[in-house]
Specification:
Layout: H1 5-24, E1 76-78, E2 88-94, E3 104-109, E4 112-117, E5 122-133, E6 136-144, E7 150-159, E8 163-170, E9 174-182, E10 188-197, E11 207-215, E12 218-223, E13 226-232, E14 241-249, E15 255-265
Antiparallel strand pairs: 1-15, 2-5, 3-4, 4-15, 5-14, 6-11, 6-15, 7-8, 7-14, 8-9, 9-10, 11-12, 12-13
């Protein structure tokens, strides 16, 4: 009887090797990816920079200008609350070669226009030159503070090259109305148109209100509200011009006159 032992061993060997291969050939499960550690969120989220809305263009503000006092008015009341404007022009006439214009002063003080003379034979004029007037009324309130020998004058139709009408009221109680003519050499020649006296004039250290009207060919003078003289003037026939006021010192000193106001009115 033949022996089968070698074949048995061979089969057993094959079985053992096959089982080993089967055990070792099991496909391993793929490893799961490791999750990253959780990131801890900050408690307060960072603030995003605020986005500013585009600003609308701003118009530049114009500087506020102080309202200016009107100048160059035609009809008004000058009350001397501030220095005289350049619309007023001072003009001097002397009655003698020895008269010294430097000894006259004019000041605006405490709402008054103060005329003060420390020399004789000085005739001081203040003309308003911003406008010319065909017809006009000029009034002034005058306080005499010096000697009782001076003239206060109101003027209409002033032309620096020709002349003017001048209404003189003396503190003594007399008046005259003149034509003042400018000569070629610059001197002034005075011609009397009419004159007289008036009980309405307050003499001495008193206050008087004087008023003149030049309308067409008619010239009128009022003193303290009373008509003193009114007449028609055709000889010199001045038609238009500026207005003015004047104070004159003659042969006594001191002469001091205060004007509270000057009115330029439409007649």
């Amino acid at each position: 009887m033949k022996s089968f032992k070698p074949l048995y061993f061979l089969v057993a060997f094959i079985l053992i090797v096959g089982l080993a291969c089967i055990g070792s050939g099991t496909t391993p499960e793929p490893s799961q990816p490791t999750s990253p550690p959780p990131v801890q969120q900050p408690t307060d989220a960072p603030q995003q920079p605020a986005t500013e809305a585009p600003q609308q263009p701003v118009e530049p503000q114009q500087p506020t200008e102080e309202p200016q006092q009107p100048t160059g008015q035609k009809f008004f009341t000058e009350e001397f609350d501030s220095p005289l404007s350049s619309d007023w022009t001072l003009f001097t006439v002397t009655g003698s070669d020895s008269a010294d214009p430097e000894k006259f002063t004019m000041d605006v003080k405490s709402g008054k226009l103060i005329w003060k003379f420390d020399d004789k034979q000085l005739y001081e004029y203040l003309f308003y030159t911003a406008h010319e007037y065909d017809d006009v009324t000029v009034e002034a309130r005058v306080d005499n503070r010096g000697k009782n020998n001076n003239n206060v004058s109101l003027i209409c139709r002033y032309d620096p090259d020709t002349g003017w009408y001048e209404f003189n009221i003396a503190n003594s109680g007399l008046y005259d109305i003149l034509y003042a003519e400018v000569q070629k050499d610059g001197d002034i020649n005075y011609s009397v148109i009419t004159n007289g006296g008036s009980n309405a004039i307050k003499s001495g250290k008193e206050i008087n209100e004087y008023s003149i009207t030049c309308k067409g060919t008619k010239l009128s003078l009022h003193i303290n509200g009373k008509e003193t003289n009114s007449f028609t003037e055709k000889k010199y026939a001045l038609r238009s011009g500026g207005i003015g006021v004047s104070v004159s010192a003659f042969n006594v000193l001191p002469i001091e006159v205060e004007m509270d106001w000057i009115k330029i009115l439409e007649p």
